[in-house]
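Researcher: Structure for this, please.
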Amino acid sequence: MGASTSIKEKHRASKKGLNRGPWTAEEDRRISATVAVHGAKQWTTSLSSCAKNCRLRWMNYLRPNIKRGNMSDQEEDLIIRLHKLLGNRYFFVVTSSKISKTAN
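Model: Predicted structure, token format:
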């Protein structure tokens, strides 16, 4: 039991400098600026949150081409046609449809 406690303590200590809680407008601006400089494929940990959280924030909320709201009838028809063609392979249906919607 002592070994697992020390692993937990090391894990907590490695995350002490990271910000937790709701995202602020300043953090959103910093993520957008980082993407403008480095692109959306290279994530650095110089931000106040870990790279994974920054990437997810960008992909699900901050990307400029993301569409919010209900799907249009045309989008639903396209997804249904692609599902008939490709089956339950969600990744291929979404990437083939060019619909930039997020589940979040």
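Researcher: Any notable elements?
Model: The chain has two domains: 2-62, 70-99. The mean pLDDT is 75.
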